[in-house]
Specification:
This protein is of the alpha/beta class and 336 residues long. The strands form three sheets. The chain has a six-stranded mixed sheet, with helices on both faces. It has a four-stranded antiparallel sheet with strand order 11-12-10-13, with helices on one face. The protein is elongated, with a radius of gyration of 24 Å. The structure holds adenosine-5'-triphosphate. The site of adenosine-5'-triphosphate (ATP) has 13 residues, from strand 2 and helix 1.
Length: 336
Amino acid sequence: MIELRDLTKRYGAKTAVDGLSFTVRPGMVTGFLGPNGAGKSTTMRMVLGLDAPTRGDVRIEGKHYAELKEPLNSIGALLEAKGVHGGRSAYNHLLCLAQSNGIPERRVGEVLEMVGLRDVARKRPKGFSLGMGQRLGIAGALLGDPRILMFDEPVNGLDPEGIHWIRTLMQHLAREGRTVFVSSHLMSEMAQTAEHLVVIGQGKLLADTSMSQFIAENSRTHVRIRTPEPERMRDALFAEGLRPVTAEDGALEVDGGDAARIGELAAAQRIVLHELSPQQASLEEAFMRLTAQSVEYHGHAPPVGTQVPPGGAAVPPGGTPTPPAWGESWKKGGRE
Ligand SMILES: Nc1ncnc2c1ncn2[C@@H]1O[C@H](COP(=O)(O)OP(=O)(O)OP(=O)(O)O)[C@@H](O)[C@H]1O
């Protein structure tokens, strides 16, 4: 378990982490999400005692990192895969780490096997691909057989096979009852990996919720209808108690509507349809809406599919404005 209480880090005038309080629990993968510069790496460095908090506290199994007797047995971390001595073989790199932490040498062979690097164990990491470097970093994290694992953007730059491997490994470690805390700036990646989500923006907690709750709240469907007779269709929908809105391209959109029922309604009234399609909001869109106000470096265009008026709420194209309190219900303490 990792517990953060009011964790804050300032660099001069910049507040990188701003009063974060949440708990990372064992037995599941917890995704730590936020746009670039949100404060994820700074938070993880404070967990490991590499950065001192300006205010607040973070504990691993109830202790500060510096108080852990055998830190590698408690928490294994992958912060930056490049932190490997390029001139030493992969085996010797891990052996040094093992010896300086009282870990038996046989464990080196075991972790190399686990990450699939046994055949290149005697090679120098200098010549390793990005994926092999990540695997070596993960081998180092697993060396002490820790109860807690923490990975900072582990899939960055990996090919699909590497991404699949890391995802499967994290889920396997969680099923063994370990605490797995993994950061990413990609919602789509986390949707397939994490059971729980902690979302931050500009150092502040935006959400602390289960993935299933996040999906349930964000997979609201609407039905899109295109017809040469929009007025008649609109009247027919209203008569059925449905409330269509007109999208920018003139299509009608019915929130939460049932496509089959709407099709039958159109047929009964002999209204010609050019399109009748159920639509689902993607989690990536939901994540971008949530963090839109707190993205540190905006590009020239707003996030795809959203328009954000200054200080206002996100508006899906042609849709109903999302209230500013969007997602409020699953902020902080939304665990079931
Ligand atoms: N040593 C430092 N000195 C000054 N500012 C820093 C320092 N480290 C981080 N920051 C700033 O703190 C903020 C948070 O950075 P951090 O690297 O923790 O974010 P992140 O969420 O990990 O981002 P990314 O996804 O881009 O890695 C950024 O604005 C960053 O520029």
